[in-house]
C-alpha cells in the first residue's frame, strides 16, 4: 500500500526521544496544530502565512479523513469478495478501483497543497522547507 505522509516530528517520551508520525495522508494521526506550529517556527512564517497554511492543512485533513473512510470500505469489499462460496471478482475489482481513485485524489491534494505552500513562501522559506523534506523531518 502506498504510504504518503505530510509531517513527522520528534517527541520526548519517558526519557527517550522517540520518532513519531504526527500527521499523514495514509499514515498516523493527523493533527493540524502541531505541524502548523512546527512549520511556523522552522520557516519563520508571518501571521498571514500561518493563516494560509492552516487553511491548506485543514483541507488536507479533510481529504485524509475521507481517504480513511474509503480505505475501510475497500477492505470491507475485499473481505466480502472472499467470504462467500464463490469468489466475487466484480466486488474485488470495484474495491481495487476505489483504492486507486483514492490514491489519485490524495496525490492531487498533495500536489495542490505543495503548489499553494510554494506560492506563499519566500525564496529562503522554500529552501528551508525543501531541506525539511530532503532530511525526512517533513514527509510528503
Walkthrough of the structure:
The chain is 66% helix and 9% strand. By secondary structure, it is mainly α. The chain is elongated, with a radius of gyration of 18 Å. The chain has one domain (8-135). The chain has helices at 33-43, 47-83, 89-120, 123-135, and strands spanning 8-13, 16-21. The longest helix has 37 residues, at 47-83.
What quaternary form is this? single chain
Structural class: mainly alpha
Give me the count of strands.
Answer: 2
The side-by-side strand order for the widest beta sheet comes to 1-2
Sketch the major β-sheet: 2 strands, antiparallel
Output the number of helix runs.
4
Our measurement of the CA-to-CA distance between the termini, rounded to an integer number of angstroms, reads 15 Å
Encode the helix/strand succession as letters.
EEHHHH
> What helical percentage do the residues reach?
55-70%
Strand content: 5-15%
Overall pLDDT confidence:
81
Which geometry do the CA atoms define?
elongated
The total tally of domains equals 1
The unreliable regions are: 1-5, 7-33
Report the radius of gyration as a whole number of Å. 18 Å
